Amino acid sequence: MVQVGDAIVSFDVFREKFFCDLDACKGACCIEGDAGAPVTLDEVAELEEVLPVIWKDLSPEAQAVIDKQGVAYTDQEGDLVTSIVNGKDCVFTCYDENGCCYCAIEKAYREGRCNFYKPVSCHLYPVRISDYGPYKAVNYHRWNVCKAAVALGQSKNTAVYQFLKEPLIRKFGEEWYAELETVAEELQKQHII
Q: What is the pLDDT along the chain (193 residues), one digit of tens a residue?
């Protein structure tokens, strides 16, 4: 691991290759798992604000869950996460005619219907951020549903941090990302990555 600003970044973020392949996975990261996506209290407010805009895009089952428990809940580990439906699917999912899962919030954002992109933890995937003492730990999360993304990343020679430039800047800022790129260059020169 290496320190970049107030974060500790795993070497895997530099070493591993990744490039989402939505055609292959069909958005499985939004509909698989044992809990919703991690969110902050500020993001819960954003989710509640965007809800009227995306309500018709959500399934009746998702609407019922939101009506009953809201847009987020505290999971077994004590983390605040998006609500889920069917025991695994994020309530904010929607599908296209080919059965591909999309984030209803991101869809609305791209269509100009709202100003909130989606929770930053979703935007950052496959990177997960956690607390590590006074620092933020930036780690690469491996998951079988992303095998195609790893293969595509290898064929494009795109490292995780390169693929996630936009969300990493969103989370940590432009200066932090520029420092991350400088660190990556140094690690390459030293043959660490």
A: 999 999 999 999 999 999 998 888 777 777 776 678 899 999 999 999 999 999 999 999 999 999 999 999 998 888 899 999 988 889 999 888 888 888 999 999 999 999 999 999 999 999 999 988 999 999 999 888 889 999 999 999 999 999 999 999 999 999 999 999 999 999 999 988 8
Instruction: List the chain domain ranges.
Output: 1-18+126-193, 29-119
**Contact predicate 107/57, CB 8 Å:** yes
Measured in degrees and rounded to the nearest 5, phi and psi for residue 192 equal -85, -30
Q: How far apart are CA 185 and CA 189, in angstroms?
A: 6
**What's the distance, CA 36 to chain centroid?**
11
> What is the value of pTM for the model shown?
0.88
| H helix intervals, the chain | 12-15, 22-25, 41-54, 60-69, 104-110, 120-124, 147-156, 160-163, 165-172, 174-189
Output the DSSP codes for 15-53: HSB----HHHHTTGGGT-SSS--B--HHHHHHHHHHHHH
For 59, the enclosing helix (H) or strand (E) is none
